[in-house]
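Example 3.2
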Amino acid sequence: MKSDVALDLLLKVKSLKKYFPLSRGPFRKPLQVKAVDDVSFEIPQKSIFAVVGESGSGKTTLARTVLRLIEPTAGQIFYKDEDLTKLDPKQLRKFRRKMQIISQDPYNSLHPRKLVKDIVGEGLKIHFHMSSNEILDKVKETLERVGLREEHMFRYPHEFSGGQRQRIATARAIVLKPEFLVLDEPTSALDVSVQAIILKMLKDLKSSLGLTYLFITHDLAVVDYMADYVAVMYLGQIVEMGTKEEIFNHTSHPYTYLLMNSIPNPDPHLRKEKMIPKGEIPSSVNPPSGCRFHTRCPYAKKICEEKDPPFTQISETHFVKCHFPLS
């Protein structure tokens, strides 16, 4: 979180930008996709920081840029006191063990021609000087921690269900004893019943191993279950940020409010009028002037079209980027 409250921070991101150039030929003006555009936030140690928004809002690009899996265009990424953007590949390697990612698709994130023991143990070969027997023992221990058995080490990914594959991907991430995990929609490709099991496992691992999560999702029900802090992202920018309680109970940005009201109610007898953002999310190649949400906002006024709203602090931990916050 970005606030005046003294927190023991693990990650601090300042004015991060990631633009992708578009090739349009030699005689046309080059364009850029502004996937992440001036994003700042802080993540306290041993917390779960969720980033939520529609598809195309820049969530996954933000996560991959924070890990420097793709290079930032501008900005700074501090892991504790070290600025990761200033490290060369050799210097960055020692941080790779501390920062891991669990991807969205368990079917494509595992090498199809490698045994599970090799998939999970590969990082141990790279980062630690361990014998083959030591690696096997560590892989076995880690698989058991995520709910798999020793016999699973000698199978291929295609022999497992989606939920089991995500357990293998989780084992691969935690076997190196990281401090920070990026969870990029880790359950969106799974059945609902399996999602609940995997989310509980991730929450238990966070507590038992003292992990810090950057949790990327579009599912607000998952955010409610998992998160300590929430950032709402729209068209490459964070438009509201705060504790989970502030975001859910004291919603301030119209976009956040509309997202909250679009959640289906599980009670069939309780009907309410759904309020969802109108239209499609604009192109990040040519985002709207002023407030980027004004083209879809039911409360937009003239100033919203002309002037970009500042990121305003409305409480110690609650921030909103809006000319007319709702609370």
